[in-house]
Amino acid sequence: MTGGGLRLGGAALLAAACAAGGFEGSARARRRVAEVRGLAAAVAVLQTEVAFAATPLPDALRRAGRAAGGEVGDLLVQAAALLGRGTDGAEAAWRDAVTAARGRLSLRPSDLDGMAELAASLGRSDREDQTRHLARAAARLQALAEGIEPEMERSARLMRSLGVLGGLAAAVLVL
Amino acid sequence: MGAVEGESGAQAALSSVTRYLPDAVCRALCALPGETRNKIEEIRLRADQPLGITGAMGEPFVTARGLPTGDPAAALRVDRAAVTATLERMAGFSLYALEEELRQGFLTLPGGHRVGLVGHALVRGGHLHALKWVAGLNIRLAVARASGAEAVLARLVDGAGGIASTLIVSPPRAGKTTLLRELVRLVSAGVPSLGVAGQTVGVVDERSELGGASEGVATLPLGPRTDLLDACPKAEGLFVLVRALGPRVVATDELGRAEDAVAVLEAVHAGVRVLATAHARDLEELRARPSLSPLWVNGAFDRFVVLSRRRGPGTVEAVLDGLGRDVSVAHASRAAVRAAAGRDAS
Q1: Fewer C-beta within 10 Å: chain B N or C terminus?
Q2: Closest partner residue to A89 among B19, B93, B99, by Cβ?
Q3: Does B340 score more than 70 pLDDT?
Q4: CA B278, B282, B284 angle in degrees (round to 5)?
Q5: Whole-angstrom distance, CA of residue B224 vs CA of residue B12
Q6: DSSP 8-state class, residue B76
Q7: Can you say whether residue B105 is alpha, beta or left, with left for phi > 0 and alpha for psi between -120 and 50 degrees?
Q8: Using a CB-CB distance cutoff of 8 angstroms, which residues of chain A are in contact with residue B97?
Q9: pLDDT number for residue A174
């Protein structure tokens, strides 16, 4: 292969890599919204299990996790497993599950603030009080999802465009 | 999982509750001298008070190094956080699932260990609605001690191999529940040497102490022909069992309310024999309880077994008939009594 051919190939690879990075960033932004919505759905299931069935917390978390599915679902199932093993309560189980899941989640740490607050009170009071905590957490997640969705659409488009255009620009520079 | 008798039973019972306890309490109890540890009947955690135990050794406190002491200042102090954490573990981190238990002031752990609760009472309509800020736990260990149940059963058998309706009477912690559980197991399994064929027994276990049930299944031995209705109010449960399960014998613990007496009478009049317990020092004290007077008036019970702690929990003071006469030899087969007494002694 000639030197010109090599440059052309390298430029093409660079453009493709930048574009792929842009698409990945865009997909991550979409996953973030999906995960927030998944958490909101899980909290709604949790609220039903606690308020109407008084399901013990490990079982309730497991059911909510299965209903949510995906990485968020796995997170709840993991917290349920830790709780079943007798950790120091829901707060510790949630914290450990989040630590273990870090890297697989597209959520930002601040997205989980509401859940961390909820975990600190989960299982520690009567149904009426638990229902209030769960309703507050669900509302907070719903508001978060609605707040980040338009931003996500913009940033997803921006990342895709930046990836493709940045890649093309880099390719031109290489050539 | 069955309860183990005697000293190893006390050890096993203690081991089965230590997983709920704070580390410091656990260490102190496990470091107790063997002879003290084997006699523990209750563990008392009170917020901002010393760790206490109760049993044949009295009511000593326990130091952090596991020494019994009468000096509260020398004992391991239990703070409110430790009480709360223990309760949360016992509740499986799901206090909301135990509202009824919190309202009644107790919960039962797997294995039948009963945990009494005290704290700030929330009252609605003049009745205890719930306990808030639980500040004290009394963990009563369920230890199967030799109950002499066969010797007692020999005195309850009627001529046709049936069981006389029997009320076991004693003050708290004298072995009523243990004896009742053993009688249920024997009647359910059958005791050929006493002429007792195995028969269907229905058990209403309002406080989950007879069966120590986990998710509705007994963890303590109740016999192969026993139907257990767990965590159900006694009166309602007796109606359900008699109507739907066709038992020849029904058993329930701690009669006390007027509706309990009505339900027992319904069962007796339906041709079902009843084994039950009630708190009282003796028959005289029992007769003074107005809520149970219909049982006397209608002659619901043919036998009364009076227990005490005189020679340890489960000391049988008397087995009496409906008229208060000793029936230890008058009504029972002497040979059966001797055979059963010999087996219990061995």
Answers
A1: C
A2: B93
A3: no
A4: 105
A5: 24
A6: P
A7: left
A8: 54-57
A9: 72
CB of A89 within 8 Å of any CB in chain B?
yes
User: Quick check: B95 and A126 CB within 8 A?
Assistant: yes
CA-derived radius of gyration, chain A: 21
Residue A77: phi and psi, rounded to 5, are -65, -40
- Reading the block at residue A75, the tokens are 């997170």
* Whether the Cβ atoms of residue B230 and residue B213 lie closer than 8 Å to each other: yes
Please report which residue ranges of B134-272 form alpha helices under DSSP H.
149-154, 176-189, 234-244, 258-269
Ranges for all domains in chain B classified under CATH 3.40.50.300: 149-345
Across the interface, which of B93, B99, B130 has its CB nearest the CB of A57?
B93
| CATH 3.40.50.300 matches B149-345 | yes
Three-state secondary-structure class, residue B211: coil
User: Is A88 in the B-facing interface, judged by CB distances under 8 Å?
Assistant: yes
pLDDT above 50 (res B217): yes
Which tokens go with B134? 């639980």
Mean pLDDT value across residues A76-104: 88
Q: Predicted confidence band at B345 (pLDDT cuts at 50, 70, 90)?
A: very low
- CATH 3.30.450 residue ranges for chain B: 6-140
Q: Collect all residues of chain B within an 8 Å Cβ-Cβ radius of residue A55.
A: 94, 97
pLDDT, residue B2, reads 41
Complex ipTM: 0.75
Please name the fold of domain B6-140: Beta-Lactamase (3.30.450)
CA distance, residue A134 to nearest chain B CA (Å): 13
CB-based burial of residue A93 (10 Å sphere; 0-12 exposed, 13-18 middle, 19+ buried)?
A: buried
Q: Are B96 and A50 in contact (CB under 8 A)?
A: yes
- Cα B306 to chain centroid, rounded: 15
